[in-house]
Amino acid sequence: MTSLPPEKESSEQNKKPKGEKPSGPTFWYLLIGLIVAILLWSWVNENGHANELTFGKFVQGLKSGEFNSQNVHELRLGLEYITFQDQPKAKSADEEAASAEPENSTTEASNASEVDSSSNGNSVADSSDTEETAEAMKRFRIPVGGISPQDLDKLTDLLEEAGIDYTGTSPQTEWGTVFSIMLMAAVVLIFIVFLRRMGGPGQAMSFGRSRGRLMAEDDVKVTFDDVAGIDEAVEELREVVEFLRTPGKYQALGGRIPRGVLLVGPPGTGKTLLAKAVAGEAGVPFFSLSGSDFVEMFVGVGAARVRDMFAQAVQKSPSIIFIDELDALGKTRGSGMPGGHDEREQTLNALLVEMDGFSSDQSVIVMGATNRPETLDPALMRPGRFDRHVLVDRADYKGREKILQVHAQKIKMDDDVDLKRIAKLTPGFVGADLANLVNEAALLAARANKSAVSMVEFEEGIERVVAGLEKSSRLIQEDEKLRVAYHECGHALVASSLPQTDPVHKISIIPRGFGALGYMLQRPEDDRHLITQTELENRICVALGGIAAEELFFDETSSGPQNDLEQSTSMARRMVMEFGMSPKLGRVNYRESKRSPFLQGVSQSSAEFAHSEQTLREIDLEVRRIIDEAMETAREIVRSQKNVLEEMTQELLKKEVMNSDELKTILDRYKTGPQLKPGTSVAKRSGEAPAPGEETPEARKQGTDE
């Protein structure tokens, strides 16, 4: 797992050079829309204010003289409307000049004789023009739809008798023509924009097209040098890279390409990054998509997308198809309600056929990633489809150090930062956790206005990842703080008094996370892969140490140790039902659950008990026995070292936080170390030597929860 450079996910048809601004279609869309709006306003302004008049009233007005040649101008007889206005249109400057020429050709004598009268007339005309322009011109519109031709003929006779000029047609204005053209253009433009938003004219209804993102060989910049901490997985995939580079070398010997590679591992271990590194090393196109991309509301779409995805990959071969979260697509068929998964099963069937379908000379490799391999269909896991199963597990101590080195290149660090020590303090962390840790440390340093990240920020970042955000502003009453301090010191004292327990790293009574009023943090010295019965029993004792301290000093317990009881009961039940660590019930696994053959994950189905009621009762009694013995051991340790617990608590109340060095100073003063109290069940096995473990234990936190 390592840092991921910025992705450049773009298809070939949509890829644009860097820095290129968007072309001008957006500007033209806005311009055309503005023109259409102006034309629409002009048309409404011209035709939207016409007064409606009935045909009968107009005929009566002509007969009575209400409408005559003085107030009816520019009358047009149309097929649907008769239009006219009560005033003539104002003459233009050219028309006025043309009409003025005959007047200028008159004799000077007549002009001189009429100078006074013309002056008076001009003044009167000017005043009348002013009055006429002051009045708004009225337009009238008469609907004639359904009027008989005989009535229209009678109307024309009345117009001729009244001396009203009219035209037999109603020609369309230039504005109307332009408006009609622009309206059609706007409709076409909207349709084009809609098609482009849907993916083009060929994709408007193409639900069956694959949603895979094509990353060209030049776009994938990740290589195996960017992958750290999973060296075994990298070596397993180098052969795949070699085949993609030189497929002819293997085909000449009759070798068959590895059809598929399944990357299995916990979340955050770098499965997706590893797939990109394979594509970057081989220099081939990389199709990336998720298992949920095949899910659609329409029947048959998922299978069509599978076929289209493989068709595109074959055209670009040699290429890689990477399906992330494969369990969303490849779950075991027939595992649900009858008829409830037909569409998903059809999609899976299409994938099975395509992975078996392309010939051996087509260099297309399918890579899948999942953290739930036990849910995948057996037909998908068989050789010939996913030939290689590569485990991408949590990194060990050296792997974590390499991952930290990769991520630490991005930040400025002080000289006191020891990545080896940080790697030892983070057992069980995956690559994503370590990347988050480095980022948290950088944010903490920036918050403190520091120029570089120091070891203090890294240790604080580890606590934030493990225990949660510190809530120093939360107000706690003094009696509650005293109870929390005794509780956490009880955990630390029991952990320091028993062998084969992880050393105490820190004790705090500052609230953190969701409801934790305090915590005691333990860190293993080395990576462990197995755990013995003695270690499990001692861990239960440590979990119950806080309850024993509360009982000793307060004569009663509180609701705080709820999480401690959950952890101790869970460990005791697993000892009896899964590990066969009960002498009464024998070496039998009583929990029939399906767990991943690759991962140490949680059971994917509820446990099924095929046991009698008597057996279940004996299981409960054995769990109770283990808890009671561990509780008695914790009580004996706390009672015998009451003075040590008192001093630890007082020191913790003063400082609120104690590290391992301060705790060691108090324990050395009383010469308290790993020891066993006589009479306990643990003392009988005091001679057992610790064995290296298998379970990758994460940092354990004993806390007081509200």
UniProtKB/TrEMBL annotation:
Binding site for ATP: G265, P266, P267, G268, T269, G270, K271, T272
EC code: 3.4.24.-
Binding-site list for Zn(2+): H487, H491, D564
Locations listed in the record: Cell membrane; Membrane
UniProt GO BP: protein catabolic process; proteolysis
Note accompanying the cofactor annotation: Binds 1 zinc ion per subunit.
Residues covered by the AAA+ ATPase domain: 257-396
Pfam families hit by this protein: AAA, AAA_lid_3, Peptidase_M41
Taxonomic superkingdom: Bacteria
Transmembrane regions listed in the UniProt entry: 26-44, 175-195
First-listed, main subcellular location of the protein, grouped into a coarse class: membrane
Keywords per UniProt: ATP-binding, Cell membrane, Hydrolase, Membrane, Metal-binding, Metalloprotease, Nucleotide-binding, Protease, Transmembrane, Transmembrane helix, Zinc
Subunit structure: Homohexamer.
Family: In the central section; belongs to the AAA ATPase family. In the C-terminal section; belongs to the peptidase M41 family.
Protein name: ATP-dependent zinc metalloprotease FtsH
Organism: Thalassoglobus neptunius
Gene label: ftsH4
